[in-house]
Amino acid sequence: MEFGERLKELRTGLNISQKELSEKTGLTLRTIQRIENNEVKPSLYSVKAISDALELASSDLLNTSDTKPYEFNVNLKITDMNQFLNDLKALVKTHWKTIFIIILVIYLFTSYTDIKSGIMDAWSGK
């Protein structure tokens, strides 16, 4: 049994239509249809969205009777990566003070005992 057949079996067993699954996952209806017809292999994002919508573990959804392991479609587009980097740059540029304070607070919490002992040594003149 291939992934699409497994998905259709689980979806119909839960009395969920393709349209309802599309709405729950945020994937298009056509994408759901193409996955169920084994026209495409879903991305990791799609598998996660579908398993969340069906309230199943991803491993339950991927558990098929095939002896070969499931292959994921992991296509990364350069334009998507560039957009991510630009968004990250914009985030840092606009919120750099907040990010700096958070890093400083984390550093202070993780180094508290060293800082305390240093202050105590300096106070006592050691």
Automatic annotation (TrEMBL):
Top-level taxon of the source organism: Bacteria
Protein name per its UniProtKB record: Helix-turn-helix transcriptional regulator
SMART domains: HTH_XRE (SM00530)
Pfam families for this protein: HTH_3
SUPFAM superfamilies: lambda repressor-like DNA-binding domains
Keyword DNA-binding among UniProt keywords: yes
InterPro entries: Cro/C1-type_HTH (IPR001387), Lambda_DNA-bd_dom_sf (IPR010982), TransReg_Diox_bact_type (IPR050807)
Every HTH cro/C1-type domain range: 7-61
